[in-house]
Amino acid sequence: MSSVIEKSPATRVAPVATLAETGVQAAAPVVEQQQEQLTDGFHLVIDALKLNDIDTIFGLPGIPITDLTRLAQAEGMRVISFRHEQNAGHAAAAAGFLTQKPGICLTVSAPGFLNGLTALANATVNCFPMILISGSSEREIVDLAQGDYEEMDQLNAAKPFCKAAFRVLHAQDIGIGIARAIRAACSGRPGGVYLDLPAKLFSQTMEAEAGRRSLVKVQDPAPRQLPAPDTVARALELLKGAKRPLILLGKGAAYAQADTEIRELVERSGIPYLPMSMAKGLLPDTHVQSAAAARSYVLAEADVVVLVGARLNWLLSHGKGKTWGAEPKKFIQIDISPTEIDSNVPISAPLVGDIGSCVSALLAGMGSGWQKPPAEWTGAIAQRKDKNLSKMAQTLESKAFPMNFHGALGAIRKVVQERPDAIVVNEGANTLDFARSIVDMYEPRKRLDVGTWGVMGIGMGFAVAAAVTTGKPVIAIEGDSAFGFSGMEVETICRYQLPVCIVIFNNNGVYKGTDVNQTGGADPAPTVFVKDARYDLMMTAFGGHGVTATTPDELGRAMREAIASGRPTLINAVIDETAGTESGRITNLNPTRAATKK
Predict the structure, then answer these.
(1) Could you give the CA distance from residue 131 to residue 164 in angstroms, rounded to a whole number?
(2) Where is the Thiamine pyrophosphate enzyme N-terminal TPP-binding domain (predicted)?
(3) Number of domains within the chain
(4) Order of strands across the sheet that contains 5-7
């Protein structure tokens, strides 16, 4: 075992910092046999993670886990320390999505745990493997409600928001506890797992060799799940009879890393495809079969839709309503979770299994003589694509001053085209809505955004995780409101010297900066921020590079310089405060605005 405590005949007392942070009372000095090798809870946690090829922890130090972060770093793990636990949790979730290994978020007890809980819930909803590890009070105190420091029943608080929750009380069970957490996070439909480690656990000791034997290397945490042959045959029969087929790729398809198989399915079948936002880049957005520029048309007109790692939730209008046209659709759904099938509409051909296996089975069944879709269907899509893309190309060349969203995003689009290896993080209302339809992606898993819940505040955590796990340049396209949820993490980005370029679309408020206080009072309207705020100065305050851009040319130039330098950079992109719409493109979910439109 790599981490042992060497004890000599001399009196040995635990370090003061460890005692203070774990809440353990110092015992009377004990004389021990020479060179007896012991290990403790701190080292067992670290060794269990390392044994399972987990080399990075995202978190925030404090009682009772500060020594754990110090020791983890000393043992060769990378410890990325944040300014707020929620952002550390979002980073862990994004790391899980990018690597298929559970991202680790480490927090202190009670309030720190609660801060991480939002990220844990979001990871579960988005199917990102993540483990939230929190220190906690002792069970005997919590159960009697005796008022311990930051006392809280964290295990039961976490259970509704994650796939599984475990508590470890004894050092010899640490290996099993971490193994169970890893398997729960990765197997089946991935998600968040909570692991509760009471303070007293860390200072428990045991014989080092017994400790080594207690650790568990998780074998095949996400084993392949093959679809039943008859379900594959049913799906192929349905596709053969389709006149207007469509493949719809979700972020589950991106997570699966079955990139070659998915591309072969699209190209061999000849079926147009539509990527959801985080599936962009599985095939280049410029691919001839991409129907993204004709989204409304293909959703309304398709007769058979193949869902690959996509759910018929609110992002797809639950598979019904005006979005999907007047005629009923037939759906083929590939999902690893059988309970997802028929969740909103009847699924004619469910394929339950992992995406790579299901797509491979479809390819094997297609054979060499597969009939591609009718030219009437693909030609109609191409015609609408060309019309819409030509129209958009004109708006993206806008030189309006101050900039509008299209002019600014036109500049960003060109930079991403030049650097397809860069990872784009995107959040906001209008900033998100416009960017996901304007900025083309060319490689898989290069786009991270707000996902299923539309959670604002993921930006800096996702950006840090993307930079740390890939080493690639990161472009974070942020609405000024969304940036406010995690903006203090610019210090984290500067502290670790990460290659992150943040572009803030500054239009002075939520949605836009033109609201007024209807009472005539001195307070600004709830959606209005400080006018002409200098977000770039936040970055310079911590040693990074800050710049203001007022034209598309200035924005593009600043981004290219930032990416070339690899320096932490924040660009304050000044946008016309009248640009944008209330609630972005989901006005229908805003009760007041939706009623006004009727």
Answers:
(1) 10
(2) 41-155
(3) 3
(4) 5-7, 36-40, 205-207
Residue 389: inside a domain, yes or no? no
Same domain, 527 and 582: yes
Task: Let me know if residue 388 belongs to a domain.
Answer: no
Q: 115 and 250 share a domain?
A: no
Give residue 283's domain range.
229-381
* Dihedral in degrees, nearest 10, Cα atoms 573, 574, 575, 576: -170
Is there a domain that residue 83 lies in?
Answer: yes
- Each residue's pLDDT expressed in tens, for the chain with a length of 598 residues: 445 544 333 222 334 334 344 444 444 444 444 567 999 999 999 999 999 999 999 999 999 999 999 999 999 999 999 999 999 999 999 999 999 999 999 999 999 999 999 999 999 999 999 999 999 988 888 888 888 888 899 999 999 999 999 999 999 999 999 999 999 999 999 999 999 999 999 999 999 999 999 999 999 999 999 999 999 999 999 999 999 999 999 999 999 999 999 999 999 999 999 999 999 999 999 999 999 999 999 999 999 999 999 999 999 999 999 999 998 999 999 999 999 999 999 999 999 999 999 999 999 999 888 999 999 999 999 999 999 999 999 999 998 999 999 999 999 999 999 999 999 999 999 999 999 999 999 999 999 999 999 999 999 999 999 999 999 999 999 999 999 999 999 999 999 999 999 999 999 999 989 999 999 999 999 999 999 999 999 999 999 999 999 999 999 999 999 999 999 999 999 999 998 888 766 766 766 665 555 4
Provide the whole-model pTM.
0.92
Is residue 461 classed as helix, strand or coil in its secondary structure? helix
User: Are residues 532 and 571 both part of a single domain?
Assistant: yes
569's enclosing H/E stretch is strand 569-574
Q: Is residue 223 part of a domain?
A: no
Angle between helices 552-565 and 405-418 (to 10 degrees): 30
Same domain, 436 and 289: no
CATH of the domain at 146: 3.40.50.970
